[in-house]
Write a structure and sequence with these properties.
It contains 4 helices and 5 strands; from the N terminus they run ββαβββααα. It is an alpha+beta fold. The strands form 2 sheets. It has a 3-stranded antiparallel sheet, with no helix packed on it. Helix 3 runs antiparallel to helix 4. It is globular, with a radius of gyration of 17 Å. GO terms for molecular function: peptidase activity.
């Protein structure tokens, strides 16, 4: 319930699923005056997921917004991983995990950790963009 899927219809109406979450968790701020801290928000685990190689989060998307969606990289990168031998794919993914962790380490003194996470993920995704499966034979 804390991590709704938000779709937008053609007329601009927000479609929120599950419906119960519309009144509870569309506002993603966790620190609000006079309100208790909410448990179970995806934002609490985004860093943990990124540290383990899940660099794409549906909470970053403009449309649709899917707070429960995490994946290792863009579709082209995932397809490249699937086409590799498992050991080779694991090494490649670990290379990007190390790249992300090193970026975070270099920028650890930065106050805005959300900004640092986004910038480090941008670096990783730029590196992943070279992995595109050719459809030509």
């Amino acid at each position: 319930m804390q991590n709704p899927f938000i779709d937008i219809s053609e007329d601009g109406t927000a479609l929120i699923s599950p419906v119960k979450s519309a009144h509870y968790s569309v506002n993603r701020l966790n620190h609000r005056p006079g309100k208790p801290r909410r448990q179970g928000m995806a934002e609490d685990v985004v860093d943990l997921f990124a540290e383990h190689g899940f660099f794409v989060w549906g909470g970053y998307w403009n449309y649709p917004v899917d707070y429960q969606h995490f994946q290792v990289g863009p579709r082209s990168f995932v397809e490249a991983l699937v086409a590799m031998e498992p050991e080779e794919g694991e090494k490649l993914l670990n290379r990007f995990i190390d790249m992300y962790r090193n970026c975070r380490k270099i920028n650890r003194s930065e106050y805005d950790l959300v900004k640092v996470r986004a910038e480090c993920i941008d670096v990783v995704l730029a590196g992943m963009s070279e992995f595109v499966i050719s459809t030509e034979e």
